[in-house]
């Protein structure tokens, strides 16, 4: 297309479903349509030709090779609907005339329609329906029907229309089932949902569903045994790789505190058990006893660290635990630490002010149907709101998304469509115009994004479910400080942010495992010119003394370290040098560390450890039911059910692709994490109540709401570590500056 092409907004008056999957352009006096998936441009034929293109229907358009399957199906159904439209009215009349035939209604609604027919039979036909054995069809007399009968006929008519359109009866039956049992609607995103549908379909019309006793009996027993077998296989690998015990705290609505204990294995994380710790969690001594019990159950010889929150009670209990078991560490959850850093960043006056201004945009947008739809049309279905891995991360992930959509939003608020929109004249709409047009606002947003993106990248690395982060987190935090320093330049300014980082990262506790992970990652170790910093080397020595109790083995590791340091033996092979940055560090050691077996074993165990328990929370599993049940048999059954649910979810997490399904930030599952960005202000609560949720266009561009791929971030980590100030720490550097100023 030429440079004189301009985007033409697609208005809400265009009702054909194909409009949601194309973009309209104006090239001079001609209007062109472009497919959103393959970018093919159509210079004629209108929306019908686009629909044929998306549906893969041969004739006037080529087939789109990138269209999602669900979109292709929808376009095919839409085209089929044009063909059957003329026959629909006649078909509906025939179905209504034989309304006493239950099989004319989609399965899942039969009972509802039958009830309407039975209770309103007199009203439907102005008297009697006649004997069923007569096989006579009676038409409904509009003059003799009372309102309730009319409602019943309209209800059944709508269902028949759905059936005639094809296939919707199945979807409606499934949806009604979920509505009826009160299940979260996100249940359809389960990895087990489609296999269930396929199994039912393969069973044919005579499929026999399981009974209540089947589900809580032999099926549950078999499922639990299957998961236990899988968990046992994972635990068998701990002798070689070691493990981390993860402690996850959940606070219930009734004030209880439940603790879940998980074990991070190389292949996946497994759930061990849950405990009602309401009477324990506030006492460091009782908490210590509970942690001690779990360590003994898992096996102290396998555990390198126990990861908990950073509250004082956990710090006290954790340090006491490491004194009792001198071969393991207590470690704070790294993701929780990053969240606290970001939270303190957000408390800085200038950052907090910009966040509030940004929220004024999203609060108005996401409380008005017409405005939400307009934004999604201009952004091709991508939302401003993004959910982060932690509450504080959500603020900065959303702020980055807002910056990424800056040009699109500016184009929207200067369009005729926005000017004609009644909401643009309201106070909230005028405020959006002011914000989006304010260059100083965007400059501040961009600066905040540059300051926080390094932390968000480290958070993504820490929470990676497929690549152990221990070998990367130390380097990641070095890069955080480095990029903040480059962005701000003046020491008195960037030290403010450095001090916040030091307070929550290394200020209150020392974590030698992270320094040792840096030392043992060949990607970083061999990139350092000259002597490696003392803190990093001390971290390795600390791990050798604590994690290897045998003194003679410690001495052998110190000797073998020289081979690694000097890149001698197999460490110096050309293939080993080439793969320092491409292989996973633990695999690199397993491949080239044969001449140093003791150091290699220690390296593999350290490099396979987790840094966080965030990412494995399963708050929707009703663990509290286990602790509410006083009957011993039912308590055992519910414990097994939770064991299966938790471990099945964790297994699915590890096998699931990083790219998520399309997610809706306004859904209940997400809106509770985004409440500060979407909750109505009093100024327009009344206005938002007039909006219609059913008219909101669904999002289709939010493929990943948790950030980018950690592998990309790891590859972006540079291998130059030459800033002594970063290694020394902000406070030490600040003291030197003060001394210099005094001397002058």
Automatic annotation (TrEMBL):
It holds the Pfam family Dimer_Tnp_hAT. Residues 13-71 form the BED-type domain. This is BED-type domain-containing protein. GO terms for cellular component: nucleus. It comes from the Eukaryota. Signal peptide: none annotated. Coiled coil: none annotated. GO terms for molecular function: DNA binding; protein dimerization activity; zinc ion binding. Keywords: DNA-binding, Metal-binding, Nucleus, Zinc, Zinc-finger. Its main location: nucleus. The keyword Zinc-finger applies. It is found in: Nucleus.
């Amino acid at each position: 297309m030429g440079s004189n092409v301009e985007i033409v907004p697609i208005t809400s008056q265009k009702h054909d479903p194909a409009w949601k999957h194309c973009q309209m352009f104006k090239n001079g006096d001609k209007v062109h349509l472009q497919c959103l998936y393959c970018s093919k441009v159509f210079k004629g034929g209108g929306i019908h030709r686009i629909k044929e293109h998306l549906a893969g229907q041969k004739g006037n358009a080529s087939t789109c090779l990138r269209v999602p399957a669900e979109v292709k199906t929808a376009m095919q159904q839409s085209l089929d609907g044009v063909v059957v439209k003329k026959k629909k009215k006649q078909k509906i009349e025939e179905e209504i005339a034989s309304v006493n035939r239950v099989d004319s209604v989609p399965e899942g609604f039969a009972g509802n329609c039958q009830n309407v027919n039975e209770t309103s039979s007199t009203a439907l036909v102005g008297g009697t329906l006649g004997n069923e054995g007569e096989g006579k069809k009676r038409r409904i007399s509009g003059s003799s029907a009372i309102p309730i009968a009319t409602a019943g006929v309209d209800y059944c008519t709508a269902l028949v229309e759905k059936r005639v359109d094809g296939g919707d009866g199945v979807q409606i039956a499934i949806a009604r089932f979920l509505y009826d049992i009160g299940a979260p609607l996100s249940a359809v995103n389960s990895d087990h949902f489609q296999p269930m549908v396929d199994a039912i379909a393969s069973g044919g019309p005579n499929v026999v569903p399981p009974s209540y006793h089947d589900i809580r009996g032999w099926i549950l027993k078999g499922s639990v045994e299957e998961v236990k077998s899988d968990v046992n296989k994972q635990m068998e690998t701990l002798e070689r790789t070691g493990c981390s015990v993860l402690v996850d705290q959940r606070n219930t609505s009734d004030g209880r505190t439940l603790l879940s204990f998980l074990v991070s294995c190389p292949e996946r994380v497994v759930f061990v058990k849950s405990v009602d710790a309401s009477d324990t969690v506030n006492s460091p001594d009782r908490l210590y006893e509970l942690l001690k019990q779990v360590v003994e159950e898992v096996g102290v010889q396998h555990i390198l660290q126990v990861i908990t929150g950073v509250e004082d009670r956990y710090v006290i209990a954790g340090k006491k635990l490491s004194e009792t078991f001198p071969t393991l560490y207590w470690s704070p959850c790294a993701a929780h630490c990053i969240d606290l850093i970001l939270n303190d960043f957000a408390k800085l006056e200038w950052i907090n002010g910009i966040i509030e201004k940004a929220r004024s945009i999203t609060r108005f947008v996401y409380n008005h149907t017409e405005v939400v739809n307009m934004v999604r049309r201009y952004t091709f279905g991508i939302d401003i709101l993004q959910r982060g891995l932690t509450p504080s991360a959500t603020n900065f992930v959303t702020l980055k998304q807002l910056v990424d959509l800056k040009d699109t939003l500016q184009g929207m608020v200067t369009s005729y469509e926005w000017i004609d929109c009644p909401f643009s004249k309201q106070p909230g709409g005028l405020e959006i115009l002011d914000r989006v047009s304010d260059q100083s606002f965007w400059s501040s947003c961009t600066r905040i994004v540059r300051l926080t993106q390094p932390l968000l990248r480290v958070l993504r690395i820490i929470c990676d479910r497929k690549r152990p982060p221990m070998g990367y987190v130390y380097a990641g935090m070095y890069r955080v400080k480095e990029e903040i320093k480059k962005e701000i330049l003046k020491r008195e300014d960037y030290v403010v942010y450095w001090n916040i980082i030091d307070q929550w990262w290394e200020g209150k506790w020392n974590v030698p495992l992270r320094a040792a992970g840096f030392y043992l990652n060949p990607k970083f170790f061999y990139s350092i010119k000259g002597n490696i910093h003392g803190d990093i080397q001390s971290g390795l020595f600390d791990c050798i003394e604590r994690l290897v109790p045998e003194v003679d083995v410690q001495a052998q590791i110190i000797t073998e370290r020289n081979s690694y340091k000097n890149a001698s033996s197999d460490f110096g092979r050309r293939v080993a040098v080439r793969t320092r940055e491409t292989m996973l560090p633990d695999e690199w050691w397993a491949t080239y560390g044969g001449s140093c077996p003791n150091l290699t074993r220690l390296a593999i165990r350290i490099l396979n450890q987790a840094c966080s328990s965030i990412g494995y929370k399963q708050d929707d599993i009703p663990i509290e039911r286990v602790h509410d049940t006083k009957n011993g048999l039912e308590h055992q059954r519910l414990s097994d059910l939770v064991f299966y649910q938790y471990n099945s979810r964790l297994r699915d997490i590890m096998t699931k692709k990083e790219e998520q399904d399309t997610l809706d930030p306004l859904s209940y599952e997400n809106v509770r994490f985004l409440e500060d960005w979407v909750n109505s202000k009093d100024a327009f609560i009344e206005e938002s109540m007039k909006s219609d949720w059913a008219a909101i266009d669904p999002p289709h561009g939010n493929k990943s709401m948790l950030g980018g791929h950690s592998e990309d971030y790891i590859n972006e980590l540079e291998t130059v570590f030459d800033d002594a100030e970063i290694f020394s720490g902000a406070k030490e550097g600040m003291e030197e500056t003060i001394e210099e100023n005094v001397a002058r």
